[in-house]
Amino acid sequence: MNNWDLSKLYKGFDDSNFLADQELLSKKIKEVCAKESDFNNYDNKLSKLVSYLKSDMELTFLIDKLMHFASLSYSVESTNMNAMKSLNAIQNELTNLARIETIVSKWLLNYPNIDKDINSDDFLKEHEFQIKENIENASHNLDEKTETLLARLRQNGSGAWKNLQKLLTSTMAVDYDGKEITLSVVRNLANDPNQTIRKAAYEAEIKAYEKIENSIAYSLNSIKGEVNIISRERGYDSPLAQSLSKSRMQQATLDAMQEACLEYMEVFRKYLKRKAKILGHSNGLPFYDLFAPIGKSNKTFTIPEANEYILKNFRTFSEDLYLMAKKAFKDHWVDYSPRKGKVGGAFCANIHAIKESRVMTNFTGAFGDMITLSHELGHAFHGESIFKESSLNSHYTMPVAETASTFCETIVNKAALKDATNDEERIFLLESSIQDYTQVVVDIMSRFLFEKSVFDGRLTTVFDSNELKELMMKAQLDTYGDGLDKDYLHPYMWVCKPHYYSGGLSYYNFPYTFGLLFAKGLYAKYLEDKESFVGMYDNLLRSTGKMMVEDAAMLAGIDVTKKAFWVSSLELLKQDIEQFLKLTE
């Protein structure tokens, strides 16, 4: 079965359990909201706090099941009106919590002797980080009426614009080779061995965006405008400052990482120019050849073959990782193949309520698809560690979210390189990894610069689609430099990437760079001492829901606020690039 099985959540939208849980959610929310008067004073404050947190855990369980079922269903069938309506109904129901959450946050902000109460109660001690984080966030909350209004308006603002982008990109027909295909299918042709096909697919993709560019431009402008206004009303200096706060990450960490990355851009440009030369280009690499395979490998994978290869190599790390992946394949956690109405890309959802994950890919059999599958299963492995914690301690942030996934990807990539039987295959596998590095270091930096320019510009203006294209091309030239052919950039990268279209999650780009480089640093430590690493690694992953990024990294003895760590990880990437340059002389 190539589609995932969601029946452990519900059998369908007409399932009596789904309908009953919807009613129960409404009931539980009303019960929580009815306790508003409890937070007018500090009488019996410890018992009130414990009661509220336990009610929050009950709500989290219900929300986890309902939201995941609706959103997962919608992601593979964006025309499913039951899924869309259920998502909207659940989100509307959740807006009713805004007032009580604001009241409790302000109550916590002025809570007398909170450390004493936390230290006197095991349940509160277990959730100390979440309580303290709530207090910190409370300083950015608006009044109860405004918070409630914003929560409700967001469903018809950024939430609706996000859904529009998802709908248009997942249902848009692309005219290619005399037939209509989906966007995800035409984008997958960027990996085709035939340059003529790659170029034709690129041109068809670019042409197709003309049909939806104006609508998507409205979406992007509206979302970024909303976030600009709300983040400043909350007292943040910028949406980036708010994003860092949500990421539990210091500005010093981002600055150190990006400073190091900028110093290594020329290393990546050398790789791009060598690839361009191999493919017959003299002015840098055209975007349509960015993902062209180099070297030779006859390896393609059926779904069972990809699963088996991943299992074999996951087992070299730990039995727990192997058994998790085996269960994922056996119990149909994965939705593999592209189809009309299914969103592009890939993701993993950790579902704490059933202590399982679900993985979506657009698998076509290419080596890169197998690597993507291993990446997403890394997220699922992170989930296995997090499921050992209470639901309140299970929410890890964007930067550390990419750690386990990149680590698992590295395991499989290294194994494939070791299994190579000749230089042509080694070049192919090595270059496949370097492609990914380039995306995560260079392209991600371009996305960061683009998003920042849109946020900055939206303070005073509105961008039309042509201006957004210009901003995107400038960001690409600022990062890729002469590594790309300036006549063949990708001006529409802002249309197809869903990461830009969230009112509650800005700058979902730099965490990928963090994840890659942090995982590389961890992998180096794994090679130094495999026996002791596995236990430490599990503890690190488990702690990501209840620690700052910097504190979690220190569990592995890594100081991510220092540029030196990021340089050491980038040096590992540089070694692979230098090996590629040597093999292709």
Structural write-up:
- With 585 residues, this protein is mainly alpha-helical.
- Helices cover 65% and strands 3% of the residues.
- The protein contains 27 helices and 5 strands.
- The chain starts with 15 loop residues before the first helix and ends with a helix.
Explain the layout of strands and helices.
Layout: H1 16-33, H2 45-76, H3 81-94, H4 98-109, H5 114-120, H6 122-126, H7 128-138, H8 144-156, H9 158-171, E1 173-176, E2 179-182, H10 183-188, H11 195-209, H12 213-233, H13 239-246, H14 251-263, H15 265-278, H16 303-314, H17 319-330, E3 334-335, E4 347-351, E5 356-360, H18 367-386, H19 398-401, H20 403-419, H21 423-457, H22 465-480, H23 493-496, H24 510-528, H25 530-543, H26 549-554, H27 563-583
Parallel strand pairs: 3-5
Antiparallel strand pairs: 1-2, 4-5
Helix pairs in contact: 1-2, 2-3, 4-7, 4-8, 9-12, 14-27, 15-27, 16-17, 16-20, 17-18, 18-20, 20-21, 20-24, 21-22, 21-24, 21-27, 24-25, 24-27
